[in-house]
Amino acid sequence: MLQNFRARSSLKRLALLLPVSLLGVMLAGCTTYNGYPTLPPDPTSTVAASSTPTQAPRPTLAEPPTATPRPSLPAVPGGLQVTKGDVLKTAFQDLLDNYFQPISSADIYEVGLRSIEVGLQKSGIDPQAKVQLPQFTDKDDANWSLFLQAYSLVLAKYQGKVTEDQLETFALSGATSSLQDCETTYYPATIAQSYFAQRTGQASIVGIGINLQSGTATNGNVHLVVRAITGSPAEKAGLKMGDQILAIDGQDLSSKTGDQVIQLLQGTRQAGSKVSLTIHRANSASTQSIDITRDTFQVPPMERATINSNIAYIRFNQFPLATQNQSGTLTNTIMTWINDFEKAGVTGYVLDLRGNSQGSITLVQNVLSYFMSGDELVYLNGSRQDQNNQHIYGPFPMPSVSNIKAINKPVSVLVDSGTSGEAEIMAYAIQHAKRGALVGDATAGCLNASSPIGLDDNSLLNITLYRAISDPQKPESIIPGVEPDQPDGLDLQQLSQGNDSQLDAAIKALTK
Predict the structure, then answer these.
(1) Hey, how many other C-beta atoms are within 10 angstroms of the C-beta on 215?
(2) Same domain, yes or no: 287 and 306
(3) Residue 436 is assigned to a structural domain of this protein
(4) Mean pLDDT by 10 residues, the chain (512 residues)
(5) Host domain of residue 119
(6) What is this structure's pTM?
(7) Cβ neighbours around 94 below 10 Å, total
């Protein structure tokens, strides 16, 4: 549980996580958020184009009151039924109340309306669509009323041609993507539940369950198993790290791209369907066939092992959001593992954060507290509530948990381009404090802590609550990503021999 680090009590409607492909290369990475809203080119996009952090004044999207006034909006036709008004009001208010830095209601409502216009155009509903914009004010309530009036006029004009679900998606996708934030995203009801299940570690996945690394050799493309997910059909069938997949159902893969191989492995994504792999295993003189039945499996949030009888290895696949009881179970598991490792006399810890994106900042704080102590594990920029329940914005430190005693043993951390969100904050905190070496590839550049909020129509907003910064005196000191202390890309030659070169480097780093 967070101590001296106030959690957002207003986030009562918890909901979801970015879908993670378990059959493929790691997350391509998030764009770096610079904190300034822009009009989105496409209201359905969820990730804005990358931009360079700047200290320029925040721009105003809505025309200021001193500009030439816009014409008043006409009256809404009588008898019009608006069913999404409450949902939209709640969603925009959640953004205004919970986003890590202040948002102008005039700005965000105007972006919502302009995004509806772009959505109508790009969807083909009306390529010449024009949404009349109202004269927004500096009053939040008045601006909501103006937005709703303009929205209602659009609904009246296009009755029978557009649904309110479409208009909601246009408005909220555009509003969230305009913030150029790698985490703040709108999820329509059609995908929200899936996202939430993954964010909370409850997702059931249909497939064979491997991570795949593809590369090029003199005789064509090679496709190697990085790992078979614990409990997956691939693991049960005997696939191992370093296995080279030569063919799928008889199709040679030497000319196939990694994405094409993933599609063949996924097939129809039907549980019970079968796939036959032709593989070559290190130190084997011949190929072999392995038949796998696709099935449903879940990815464990954490895994542990002891390496060389004295190195503790913990892989954090995810820091799942959880209820208080579930969170307590996870933190107790971590405590038990640490105690077991210490009783066994391990001499160092390797923490594997590769592919870990999004999660729970509370769990990260707990894990960090086993390896670091103090009042300033990392500085975050965000909003909190003062004694009068008023929002205040600015930097604040995240302390270690007072009842956890930090371990004073060497630590190394494995990262890659899929290390993002809360896991990326953890990696940065360890590196910044010089507590341990980071090994692997550069991280995603998205050091945000976010939380999903469910809406009454089963759609969802994921909102950035906090952003890690490098200088507590400069809220704008955005961290563009974390470069490893020891850059070490995954060596395909070593992988083909069943060796994880990055893990080997992390173990060596413990003795430096």
Answers:
(1) 15
(2) no
(3) yes
(4) 38 33 23 28 31 32 59 93 97 96 95 97 96 96 98 97 97 96 95 92 92 90 95 96 96 95 93 96 93 95 96 96 76 94 97 93 95 96 84 92 95 97 97 97 96 96 96 93 93 93 96 84
(5) 85-180
(6) 0.85
(7) 17
